[in-house]
Design goal:
CATH architecture of the largest domain: 3 Solenoid
CATH topology of the largest domain: Pectate Lyase C-like
Distance between the termini: 107 Å
Number of strands: 68
Bound molecules: calcium ion
């Protein structure tokens, strides 16, 4: 028997069933159906939002929302907002290729989490649905974006793009962006987004690793194109926690903004007033705590005000000093450096901070010195650097008055600086302060963080990330045997220590993939021996880091192919930085075929640090480390810190170290390289060594080579690029070797000898 029902009939029947279920639920019976008003997927959401009227609340059901593309336009009213919220804040989790874009008015979005994926568009949360459909009077609050980073390190996106006017972004947590692109951008492409009055407050900007390139800013307001227009954005009471992407933590590129009451905790970089005028930076706290490259505030442009900021333990130099006033370019193009005009740097409290830079960046192009500017009533106290001021050019356009320094430090002038005995103590809020009298003298007020870590960010989300380190897991003993080490690595947890037997032999017949920090060691005494039948012993994958101690690596079982290595990074882009430590190790006979490297890095991978200490390398047909894979000269590079100490290298056919950072970009700190107490013999002479050097440093920003003996080898190739690299070579002895080859930029040198036997 056939019954033909029209579509309408079917829908009617389903509706009936749904209605009956609703009634059952309403009667209070045990019911697992979704209550009304809760949407379970994108289709249901779209249906609900299309019909939403002022005052409606749309609740997203708890659970994972995978590949959810939420894009909508809606209109609440000033009295009755439309609210889009999580059923339980923190339990609606967007994963995969999800994003949220919205436009309209009086919409509040809250309680959402984005993690385990990345946006398929160019923004994770966007305050627009098209170039002309923008959000106004909207709010995003209590949301999280946690490492929702594109796996391609140099595929650019933003996490938050703010457009329109009068929007608020508050109590959100943005943690761990690891691909290129600003974490949060206020954008001003059209009139409809300018003079916007946005408020960005009580957010937690969580740890962001060093990017090793421009494009790692945490917050940017405007771009150079629209920098002479007003944004009028307020950024207050946010907490920036170890955001180290690049040297601009905040890149202010528009007029009329206010930065007030923010905390910058151990951030490498500065709040940079890069473009635009009439911006105020006040009552912010910069806590460097002596960490490397921590910076303060940099003034460029006109009518800027920097006052009542607290700056402690900042070590950054040059553009990343505690306080910096730049030189400009006469009649600057919009994307270069406007002269500093009529700006104020006043009433700031600078403690144990190393550098204050005036007329910074002075060169042939940047020749316009500051005018009409004041440097007044700043307290500059401390002993970490007794000559904190560097003056690069004519400062007659800056008025100095009422500043205070400790007697032991050197003031740039007698006039405008008072000297006092150094007296610092910790106050009841745990901050280092001078005497009450001095604070009163400049009217600083009480010294207290304007906002605590507890008061910011999404209420439900932890703020303890950022450190992945060695030796934080369990100690696991691994008996010698074929593939015993492979099995131990596969079943290890982050931070575990794998302890091998003294003198034990550990042959690996498979690749050892390293996905998290692992330490491999053997106890003091005879080293454990590691061999591999594969082209790499270890492959450091995204998230991996490796510490090797008291081990012997032998190439005897490696395959007879060209291009083997002991350690390689992933061949694919890694958006997490890795680390490598090699201590008390011996590496020998990496000589199966040619070009057998110790460490082979690939493009778009980045090491936070590589350390070699107390180790011996002999008979290597490739290089000890190749970190020269970013060849486009865009200021991109492969490693932040290299330290090689107390080690010997002999019969290495390619380079011992090859570091390359090309281009003229000025937005990074690294690479930084230290080579000390090292001896190199009979090395660099292989016919496939393309650099022709045994140590090659191109574009290294901070280089120290000390107590190095190079015999019967190729030489050092030193190419210094822009950015005033700090280069120091001392106590280097070349014996029967090629010596030093430089591009003739000046650098510090002492006791470099060329001898022949
Ligand atoms: Ca930048």
């Amino acid at each position: 028997m056939h019954i033909t029902l029209g579509k309408d009939n079917i829908r009617f029947n389903y509706l009936n069933i749904f209605f009956i279920l609703l009634v059952i639920c309403a009667w209070g019976m045990s019911c697992t159906e979704t209550p009304p008003g809760i949407v379970k997927n994108v289709d249901e959401f779209n249906m609900a939002i299309q019909n939403a009227t002022p005052g409606d609340v749309i609740t997203l059901a708890n659970g994972e929302w995978e590949d959810a593309e939420i894009k909508f336009d809606a209109r609440g009213s000033e009295a009755e907002w439309i609210r889009v919220k999580a059923e339980t804040p923190g339990q609606v989790v967007f994963t995969g290729q999800s994003y949220l874009a919205f436009s309209g008015e009086y919409i509040e979005i809250s309680g959402l989490v984005f993690k385990d994926g990345y946006t398929p568009t160019s923004e994770v949360i966007s305050f627009k649905t098209s170039k002309t459909s923008l959000a106004n009077h909207c709010r995003v609050t209590n949301c999280v974006i946690d490492n929702y980073s594109n796996p391609e390190r140099f595929d650019s996106d933003y996490w938050v793009g703010m457009y329109g006017k009068n929007n608020q972004f508050d109590h959100n947590s943005l943690i761990g962006k690891s691909n290129v692109g600003v974490t949060m951008a206020v954008r001003l492409p059209t009139e409809a987004s300018r003079e916007n009055g946005h408020i960005i407050e009580y957010n937690y900007f969580g740890p962001r690793g060093v990017l090793g390139s421009n494009g790692g800013e945490t917050l940017r307001i405007g771009t150079s194109h629209y920098s002479r227009t007003y944004s009028n954005t307020i950024v207050r009471n946010n907490y920036f926690d170890r955001v180290n992407g690049e040297h601009e933590i905040v890149s202010n590129k528009s007029c009329g903004n206010l930065f007030e009451g923010n905390v910058f905790f151990e951030c490498q970089g500065t709040l940079t007033m890069r473009h635009g005028h009439h911006t105020t930076v006040q009552n912010n706290y910069f806590l460097g705590n002596g960490k490397p490259n921590t910076g303060g505030i940099r003034i460029i442009n006109e009518y800027q005000t920097v006052k009542n900021n607290y700056l402690y333990g900042l070590t950054g130099h040059r553009f990343r000093g505690a306080l910096v006033i730049m030189n400009g370019v006469p009649n600057s193009p919009i994307n270069r450096y406007n002269q500093v005009v009529d700006s104020k740097m006043e009433n700031n409290l600078v403690i144990n901070s190393d550098y204050i830079q005036l007329c910074a960046g002075s060169d042939e192009e940047r020749s316009a010195t500051p005018v009409g500017t004041t440097f007044k009533n700043n307290l500059i106290l401390g002993e970490t650097n007794l000559q904190p001021f560097t003056i690069y050019d004519d400062v007659s356009g800056i008025e100095f008055a009422g500043n205070v320094m400790n007697e032991s430090a050197e003031a740039p002038f007698d006039q405008g600086f008072q000297k006092v005995p150094l007296q610092l103590s910790k106050n009841e809020h745990g901050l280092i302060v001078p005497s009450e009298e001095l604070l009163d003298q400049i009217g600083f007020g009480s010294v207290k963080l304007p906002v605590s870590k507890e008061e910011v960010g999404a209420s439900f989300y932890p703020k303890d990330g950022g450190e992945r380190s060695f030796d934080t897991g369990e100690l696991i003993k691994v008996a010698a045997g074929e593939d015993a080490l492979i099995q131990a690595i596969e079943s290890s947890n982050p931070g575990d220590v794998l302890e091998l037997e003294n003198g034990g032999t550990y042959l690996m017949t498979k690749y050892a993939f390293v996905h998290h920090p692992i330490t491999i060691t053997s106890p003091a005494g005879e080293k454990a021996v590691i061999l591999s039948e594969k082209q790499s012993f270890f492959k450091i994958e995204n998230g991996g880091a490796l510490q090797l101690m008291n081990l012997l690596f032998d190439g005897a079982e490696s395959p007879d192919y060209a291009g083997n290595n002991v350690i390689s990074t992933s061949k694919y882009s890694m958006n997490q930085n890795y680390a490598l430590v090699v201590k008390d190790c011996e590496v020998k006979d990496l000589d199966k075929n040619h070009s057998f490297d110790f460490l082979k890095s690939y493009k778009h991978t980045f090491a936070d640090s590589i350390i070699i200490d107390q180790s011996q390398f002999t008979n290597v047909t490739g290089a000890v480390m190749t970190l020269d894979m970013e060849t486009e000269d865009l200021g991109v590079y492969n490693v932040e810190n290299i330290k090689i100490q107390n080690s010997t290298f002999s019969d290495v056919q390619h380079e011992v170290v090859n570091v390359y950072r090309g281009g003229t970009d000025e937005s990074t700190f690294g690479p930084m390289v230290l080579i000390e107490n090292v001896s190199i013999s009979n090395s660099g002479k292989g016919k496939r060594n393309q650099s022709g050097a045994v140590l090659r440093f191109h574009g290294v920003q901070r280089l120290t080579v000390n107590q190095v003996n190079i015999s019967d080898s190729k030489g050092i190739d030193l190419y210094m690029t822009n950015g005033e690299p700090i280069t120091s070579l001392s106590n280097i002895q070349f014996v029967n070797s090629a010596g030093l080859n430089t591009n003739n930029e000046p650098f510090e040198q002492q006791n470099i000898q060329n001898l022949s036997k």
